[in-house]
Design a protein that fits this description.
Blueprint lengths: L1 H10 L11 H16 L7 E2 L10 E2 L1 H10 L16 H9 L3 H5 L2 H9 L14 H13 L12 H15 L3 H14 L11 H10 L5 E4 L30 E4 L8 E3 L5 E4 L3 H8 L2 H6 L2 H4 L14 H9 L1 H5 L4 E7 L15 E7 L14 E6 L9 H17 L2 E5 L4 E5 L1 E7 L2 H8 L19 E3 L4 E3 L35 H8 L39 E2 L2 H16 L10 H10 L8 E2 L5 E2 L9 H13 L14 E2 L4 E2 L4 H15 L6 H17 L6 H21 L7 H16 L8 H4 L1
Parallel strand pairs: 7-12, 12-15
Antiparallel strand pairs: 1-2, 3-6, 4-5, 6-9, 7-8, 8-9, 10-11, 13-14, 16-17, 18-19
Helix pairs in contact: 2-3, 6-7, 19-22, 19-25, 22-23, 23-24, 24-25
Amino acid sequence: MCSIYFSRLIMDKSWMHKSRSTIEYKNGLNQFLDMAFSNVSLGGKIICPCKYCKNAKWVDRETTKEHLIVDGFMKGYTHWVIHGEDTSSSQTTFQNLDPINTLDDMDGLINDAFGVKDSDTSMDEEPNESAKKFYKLLDDAQQELYPGCKKFSKLAFIIRLFHLKCMGKWSNKTFTMLLELLKEAFPTMTESLPKSYYEVQKIIGALGLTSTKIDACPNDCILYWKEHEKSTSCHICNISRYKQGEINEVADDVSSVKHKKIPAKVLRYFPLKPRLQRIFMSSKTSTFMRWHKEEGTKDGSMRHPSDSPVWHSFDRQYREFAKDPRNVRLGLAADGFSPFRTLSVTHSTWPVIVTPYNIPPWMCMKEPFFFLTLLIPGPSPPGNNIDVYLQPLVEELKVLWEDGVETYDASSKQNFNMRVALLWTINDFPAYANLSGWSTKGELACPLCHKDTWSKYLYKSRKQCYMGHRRFLDDNHPYRKDANSFDGTEEYGQPPIPLTGDKILEDLGELNVKFGKKVSNNPALPYNWKKKSIFFELPYWKDITLRHNLDVMHIEKNVCDSVIGTLLNLEGKTKDHENSRLDLEDMGIRHALHPTILDSGRKYLPAACFSMSKKEKDIFFDILQNVKVPDGYASNISRCVQMKPQKLSGLKSHDNHILIQQLLPIGLRKVLPKHVRTHVINLCTFFRELCSKVLIPRDLVRLEEEISKTLCELEKIFPPSFFDVMIHLTIHLAYEARLGGPVQYRWMYPIER
């Protein structure tokens, strides 16, 4: 009898989600305690499952009851296996479920779309309109397709039918004709089905599977929205809004032929508000949106963006925003990719993705919390004109900052006004230029050194080099006056001070830059500026200390390629070649490496200290070919090693990550002179420490000092052509980590995956 009683108790746990002051909660708690203490051993104590004990402390019945009334159950503890619940009862529960739910998990689909669980339906306050739509759709998902149908629910059948339409590439008209045929052939069984594709689209739209289409100029000049919504041609380049039309309907005479207007270019915009609201509609995810304030570890180390000076500085400047921990901080990422499987087609489609940073580390930067907001069509990348396509998103971000949006918080059972702020952008170096407005090419390519970038054009190699790292050393460092070991000059400069938002606005002033591929009469801009970024329309953007992140992933990859290519003298990848030696000759430094003319008339390049001999290459390649790593740690790098001829090929970004941080220091232990391998290994160590999951501010200050010394040592070893902008950017990575926190939340790995 007792087992039957407790099996019923296990089936009904709705009291757990009620207020702890209600009679239902107290009665349910007493039943839970009866079960937990029914098989207790001597001592009369159980493990307390309250919010603070978390199944770690042994206490008596009265203390347990007090804890669970005052603090409540720990999060997620709904299956009481530690306190005597029989797991077999939950299995029988699933076996007795309605066949509809076993064949198609419509409740799960709706929960995923809205972020709500069935247990969230108990409310203390009337839900807002968005939450009401969820509960209405949940009821519809339980309807049978026709009376007595156990295989499909109404919603499941519609989604399966819509899936066939997408896979089979049916036209909208054909899909409507199929629905009409089904209703005509089976009138009593298909009475609940929608009549047309339009009605199906409204149902699918309630699941969040739709987007807003905005026509765009093919030359990226304007969007046809707001004041240009009804325009038929671009007022900047005068090109038509539409393609050559397709014949939609043919009449008896030629004059009455109708043409279907097809937009030449269409931007797809996925509104941000409903998806952020859905995070709060689940009591599970809504509590995690306060994690950064309520549960984050506060010990001075940085484990999460909420521990960073950027976050704290924003809180100090905007105290009203920071008062409510539910207000959302976002990161924005943009990059191009080819949607076609073949590489022979040149096409670049640009998705723009945002991700919230309120959530804990084990959820942050994970795929379920990546929200696609814009899909910018190809075939060519938007480049500097990306601001045209960002207008709808920036407009929505302004509204979410200034006015906010009413949101239902399932954890507190109340509505609140949710506000949103964009914290920074994440992008590779070319996209950095598109989003920030500072050109990342030419003599002022470094956006952090800006107008004070040290660069020199190498006439033989036909490229810019970026050295001048002695500026970052102490004022009294002996390397500052050592002209012979470096570029032939003494260094008295100071490290550049990064630009603030106010300084940028002061330099750019009131600009009127026109966008578009055919626009050529834009005003001249100072230094390397191409535009004033559209993000400065956000009222708070100028006050953020780290607006755009340097991508550690791509920088690490390029540095690894340059180092390995130069050390192994790989064809096409080495920075040491005849032209680089001629550059040394032009600069009048390192005379031992200058090309010499042999008696036969051929040029001879003396061996450099950083070039591996044949024997050293054999040792290095043998290590890489025989290395074994744990499953899932890295790809099989040995497959990228070719012994005859000796070369590395097919390395991915993560392969370079493992190579420079783990394998390269091992491979260099018995090769190259000590003064060369020591400084190359120091560079590898810098990246390994920089990518730590926990960053300590004083260690980052040390890393800033060490990387400046390491780059100066490398300037004494490698030719100037080695120092492209990617090598130079490493000097700023520790500084950005000191501002923004761990790099795992600010690099492109999760975005590109």
